[in-house]
Each structure stands twice: as C-alpha cells, then as structure tokens.
C-alpha cells in the first residue's frame, strides 16, 4: 500500500512515522519548505520526501493520501486526486484505527483549546494515562506510533473533520459555532456548521455529544438533524435534569444520575465563556468517573492557555493582556466582554471575511483607542473610525505596544485581541503573541 502525505509539518511527519511502522510505502510531498528538524526525522526513519513541489508521478500512484489540514480542498493537486478516485483523508482518520484508546474530541469556533487543555488537565490529574493532540501539541498519529495511551484528548478543527470517514470519538464536544474560516467553505456558513457536526456523524448510542445549549447555530442544527449519541447540554441560562448549568453562582452537573456542584468563585478561569469551557471539561471528567475532590482541585489550580487572555505584566498600573489566539471576531467578542477597565485595543491582520459590527456595542462601552496592526486596515477604520477618539495604524508589534503605552492612563488595560489571522506580519499567532509579550517586557 502506497501512502502519500501532502504537507511535511507536524501532522504530516507524524502520519509518515505511523504509516512506516504499519508497513506502508510512504512518501511526503510539501509544496513549501519542510523544517530542518522534520527533514531529519524523515531521513532517520528512511522516509522519502520532496519540498517546494508536488511531483505528479510520485503522488498520483498513491493508494491513500493524507492531506494536512492547512491545505484547502480546492488546490489543484487535491482536486485531481479526488477526480482519480484516490481517497484523501485527514491525519485523525488515518491514525484512529491503530488505537483502542478512549477518544475525547473537542471542536468549536472558540474555546476549544482552553476546553481541551482543561479536560487534559482534569484527566491527567486523576492519574489517567492520557495523550493530548489534534490541533495542539504533538501529532495524534505520532503519539500512536510512539506511545500506549489509554485515552486521548484531541482538539479538532473543521479542516481535520472535513477529512474523516469513519473516525468517531467516544465523547464529542462542540464548544460553540460562529462564522470563521468561511474562505474555506465557499463563504457559506451552513457548510462550516456542517463541518463541525461531522464530529458526531459516526457516533453510536454508546457515545456522548456535549454541546453549548445557548448557541443558536448548534440549537438550529440539532432541531433539523439527528445524532445517535446521547446529548449532554451545558448552559449559562437554562437548567437541565441531565446536563451542566450555572445557578446561584454554582456550577451544577447532572449526568447518569450523579450530581456534582462547585462554587464558580473557586474556579481558576475567569469570564462567562470560561464557565462554559469548565462545564464541558467537568462533564467529561464525570463521564470518565473521576473523583469529585480531584475535579475540584484541578478546576481551582488550572493555569489557563498561553496567548488566550493571558495577563502579561502590569506597568504603571496598566494591565497588558495577550489574546493573540483570538483569530476571529467571536473570540475577540469574549475578550472585550471580559474587560472591566478602559481599554486600548490592538486589532488587525488577515481578515477571513469578518463582520466587525457585532463588536460595536462593546467597543463603544469599553474601548478608548484602537491600534490597527495589519497590512490592510481599511475595514476596521471604516467601521470604528467614528466610534473611538483615537485610531492609529502601525506595521510592527514594537510600535503597537509603544503607542498603546502613550495612550493609556493608570487603571487602563492594553488588549491584543486581533480578531484576524496573523500571516501578514507574523509566522503564526504564537509568534504574534510572543512578540507582544517581549515588547511589553521591554517597556
């Protein structure tokens, strides 16, 4: 069996290693450059590869193709593979049959990284032999090749779910759905929503789907479609005989005739959206029969996720906050909503078809100045130009941070929450967040 892998990044190289171990003839092809450390790994394992090109003769003789999530379906090589009837799948689909581990799969437009990390933290603290993967950390396929985990917590993007046929998590979570990556879904929101719900398409009556019952897109989908999985809702506004909710400042969870309650004041994460993430992760912990004391302790000592509402430093009584992971409008909505002080907002980057109007009321209420950090800021300026007193354009992080410092007074906050992808000026959102933190430390 010939396995061709498109993309020589983390998921591609992980799949190559697992494929080789399982007896496939493996070839890796990357249209860009492959990082040096990945080339070394491929060479050590005797895996053939090419970079900066796709040689058709070496690709179209595949029995199976694993496409990295970053490669769109509409690229010519992918279209031609599909035309020729060669199956094109994602890393998750390829790897899952090679493990008997319990899989928790987490998707959503926002909150999935925090929910994934918190769920992993809860299970690991309980002594479960658990791996963390998917869209985060070490590739799922690579971990299956190297380790023998009993459970996996996987953060799954819609791109990874697009490439599944048989994959099914035992526990699936949809944190929320809001317009994102619409450029990959023909600018059709319904297509994007359907992609998220692929997480439950192979689930059976033995499996569980946890979901945000306050989310309009999720509720609308569930009214029109069915899943065999047992549904477990979580909500900030409703209560359930089976599910998770907040009542009188207490998080209450009722699952399989068992109850768990905890004061929200004792949960380390702050903000309404994080209460939802905590309810989802705690529901998983209850389904996996983790002791209440362990759950309470883990929820109270969780450190949060880097680049997601991360408090960097307080300088001259101004709080600097790194929310570089906010790559869409909905994530930035949560960030602005959680601000309790006058805010200088650093925003901008590669726009994915954003509608900024839904931020308008929060900007009027909380934002004193906007710093646009992007190559093309026209849309942001057009929408908010008359709403805030100060609107400034910069093209690097140092200028953004220095300008922010000038515009603040004691008691203010500076929030980097770009609502956009980072690729115009940075390698990725981590690079953007790290540059922000460094610039703040240099003040």
TrEMBL record:
It is an enzyme of class 6 (ligase). InterPro entries: Mur-like_cat_sf, Mur_ligase_C, Mur_ligase_C_dom_sf, Mur_ligase_cen, MurD. One of its GO terms (biological process) is cell division. Residues 106-284 form the Mur ligase central domain. NCBIfam families: murD (TIGR01087). Cell wall formation. Catalyzes the addition of glutamate to the nucleotide precursor UDP-N-acetylmuramoyl-L-alanine (UMA). This is UDP-N-acetylmuramoylalanine--D-glutamate ligase. It comes from Flavobacterium segetis. The lineage of its organism: Bacteria, Pseudomonadati, Bacteroidota, Flavobacteriia, Flavobacteriales. The gene is murD.
């Amino acid at each position: 069996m010939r396995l061709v892998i498109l993309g020589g990044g983390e998921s591609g190289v992980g799949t190559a290693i697992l494929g080789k171990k399982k007896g496939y003839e493996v070839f890796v092809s990357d249209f860009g450059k492959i990082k040096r450390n990945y080339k070394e790994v491929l060479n050590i394992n005797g895996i053939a590869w090419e970079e900066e090109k796709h040689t058709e003769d070496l690709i179209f003789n595949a029995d199976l193709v694993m496409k990295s999530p970053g490669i769109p379906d509409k690229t010519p090589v992918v279209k031609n593979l599909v035309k020729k009837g060669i199956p094109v799948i994602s890393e998750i689909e390829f790897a899952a049959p090679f493990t008997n581990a319990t899989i928790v799969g987490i998707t959503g437009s926002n909150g999935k990284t925090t929910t994934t990390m918190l769920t992993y933290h809860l299970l690991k603290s309980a002594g479960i032999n658990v791996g963390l993967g998917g869209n985060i950390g070490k590739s799922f396929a690579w971990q299956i090749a190297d380790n023998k985990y009993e459970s996996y917590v996987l953060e799954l993007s819609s791109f990874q779910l697009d490439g599944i046929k048989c994959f099914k998590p035992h526990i699936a979570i949809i944190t929320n759905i809001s317009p994102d990556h619409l450029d990959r879904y023909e600018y059709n929101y319904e297509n994007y929503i359907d992609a998220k719900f692929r997480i439950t398409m192979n689930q059976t009556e033995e499996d569980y789907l946890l979901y945000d019952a306050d989310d309009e897109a999720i509720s609308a989908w569930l009214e029109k479609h069915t899943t065999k999985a047992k549904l477990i809702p979580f909500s900030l506004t409703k209560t359930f005989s089976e599910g998770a909710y907040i009542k009188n400042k207490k998080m209450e969870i009722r699952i399989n005739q068992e109850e768990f309650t905890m004061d929200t004041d004792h949960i380390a994460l702050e903000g309404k959206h994080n209460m939802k993430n905590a309810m989802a992760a705690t529901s998983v912990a209850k389904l996996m029969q983790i002791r209440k004391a362990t759950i309470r302790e883990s929820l109270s000592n969780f450190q949060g996720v880097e680049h997601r509402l991360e408090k960097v430093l307080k300088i001259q009584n101004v709080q600097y906050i790194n929310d570089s992971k906010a790559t869409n409008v909905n994530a930035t909505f949560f960030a602005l909503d959680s601000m309790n002080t006058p805010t200088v907002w650093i925003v901008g980057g590669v726009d994915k078809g954003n509608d900024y109007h839904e931020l308008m009321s929060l900007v009027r209420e909380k934002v004193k100045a906007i710093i646009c950090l992007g190559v093309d800021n026209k849309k942001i300026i057009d929408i908010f130009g008359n709403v805030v007193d100060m609107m400034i354009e910069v093209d690097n992080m140092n200028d953004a941070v220095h300008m922010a410092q000038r515009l603040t007074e004691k008691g203010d906050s500076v929030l980097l929450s770009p609502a956009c992808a980072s690729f115009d000026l940075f390698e990725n959102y981590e690079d953007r967040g790290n540059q922000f933190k460094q610039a703040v430390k240099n003040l």
